[in-house]
Amino acid sequence: MSNAGDLLKVEGLTAGYGAAPVLHEVTLSVGAGRIVAVLGANGAGKTTLLRTLSGLLPLAAGRVMFDGLDLRGVKVEKMVRHGIAHVPEGRGVVTELTVDENLRLGGLWRKPREPLDEIYDLFPALAQRKNHLGHQLSGGERQMLAIGRALAAKPRLLLLDEPSLGLAPKITSQIMGLLRDLRDRTGLAVLLVEQNVRSALSIADEGIVLNLGRIAAREKADKLADDADLRHAYLGF
Ligand SMILES: Nc1ncnc2c1ncn2[C@@H]1O[C@H](COP(=O)(O)OP(=O)(O)OP(=O)(O)O)[C@@H](O)[C@H]1O
């Protein structure tokens, strides 16, 4: 599932922490306007994959190309300028800053700064809490803020790690619906790491199953959702 129009192309990626690789020769691609779900058991390497793609961890081998640019030479803090935003697991909201200040951090590198109206339209709950501090928000509101901050940077690719973590099903489905809308309206591409397999596959175009740091399967999302053998083998349901 790789073609000339791919925004992100990962080839033979090997990476991890220190000498022992966690990811082994991972090859995948994400096209513009596509949502690709990354699934797999605890410890499969999903978070490590996102951390490597966003430049937080070095590549031991392989190549990551984004819209024709080799990301090996790009510093982590410059990724956002190239159109890649990462929402880490655990959300990454600055708890001492207000909602508004957190959102402004996302678009800080843009000059002139753009108003945040679009983000507040997407997340009315945040609009009502512009002056609340990060630590005064609920888990769901913090997750929305972390995603909102990433979107304020106007990325072309969102690397999203476990957006459903600790959230009520209703909030999770709101967030999934929002991602689908953004994909359809703006052509946003998303690499979505999720434990909530059903939610992720309900909005994804493709699904990738990681097992012990290797790609065990790569399928269209509806096919993956229907593949009972694969689900039993790697996803536990
Ligand atoms: N900072 C670290 N230093 C060393 N090893 C790590 C570190 N973080 C994760 N690992 C190891 O890397 C492997 C993959 O972890 P990773 O967090 O990428 O898995 P995951 O698929 O995201 O799991 P989960 O679904 O539980 O979040 C695990 O064996 C883990 O112990």
UniProtKB/TrEMBL annotation:
Which InterPro entries does the record cross-reference, listed alphabetically?
A: AAA+_ATPase, ABC_transporter-like_ATP-bd, ABC_transporter-like_CS, BCAA_Transport_ATP-bd_LivF, P-loop_NTPase
**Pfam families found in the cross-reference section:** ABC_tran
Q: Name one GO molecular function term.
A: ATP binding
Which keywords has UniProt assigned to this entry?
A: Amino-acid transport, ATP-binding, Nucleotide-binding, Transport
Quote the PROSITE patterns the UniProt record gives.
ABC_TRANSPORTER_1, ABC_TRANSPORTER_2
Renumbered to this chain, the signal peptide range is none
- Domain ABC transporter as annotated: residue spans: 8-237
The keyword Plastid is annotated on this UniProt entry: no
Q: Which family does it belong to?
A: Belongs to the ABC transporter superfamily.
Its protein name is ABC transporter ATP-binding protein
The organism of origin for this protein: Paractinoplanes globisporus
